[in-house]
Design brief:
By secondary structure, the protein is an all-alpha fold. It contains 7 helices and 2 strands. A two-stranded antiparallel ribbon has the order 1-2. It starts with 5 loop residues before the first helix and ends with a helix.
Length: about 270
Amino acid sequence: MIKISLKSKSYLGLLFTLLGLMVVMPFIEIGQSLMDRSIVSIFFLLFLVSSLKAISTRGITPKRKYIKWLSRIVALVAFLSDITGIILDILIQRGKVPGLTDQLSDVTNVISLFAYSLLILFLIIFIIKDLFSGQKVTADKIYGAVVSYLLMGVMWGCLYAAVSTINPESIIKANGIELISFSEAQYFSFTTLCTLGYGDIIPNNELTMVLSNLEAIVGALYLAILVARLVGLYTAQVSRDKFNDAIREIEKASAETREGFQTIEKELHEK
């Protein structure tokens, strides 16, 4: 029976959260509403918890104090701005506070999306450093490789959603309609990351064109470099295992030879 280590489980938890963000959320998010905003916030809260658990369990927390504090501040800003945006949406919908407008809610939404993007970037860097450490290809590294690739798609999805909130015409559908949900920005991000290019959603200004180009390039380079790294590690691991097996066989044969000489020597002394 194959045992999954605690370190592997930490990456698995983060992987399941990301899969939920990709697979489950599009079916329950229907547009720009308070319920949709709450659903996205819940998924990102689970993402925060899973991320903190993963990096603490793996022991890949940053060594420098200022990076630790910066990560904590960014996470706090992301979470608080997210919650603030939900509260503002509730107040705006109920009309209890005169003067509140959707623009104020959009500001908090943009801040949270940019903060989450920066936090995900930190996490990707930590995980990639973990992937390139060590000398063996393990289940931990496979899970981490998948997680970091999915995180890239989520990070760019947050950037696209933020840019689309600032300028709704920056990303449009083929029929000219603007994006109406985070899931659509996420969908556009992963189709760009995988270089599918369906053409149903297209960048419509210079900034989104640059972002989409960068995502496609980074996605392709990541796969090429990571596969080369894992194949190199696996080849070296197989070579080391064969070398160690050969050494053990030599030591075993040497021990048997010494034992044979000792037996012969003992028989000669008895005679």
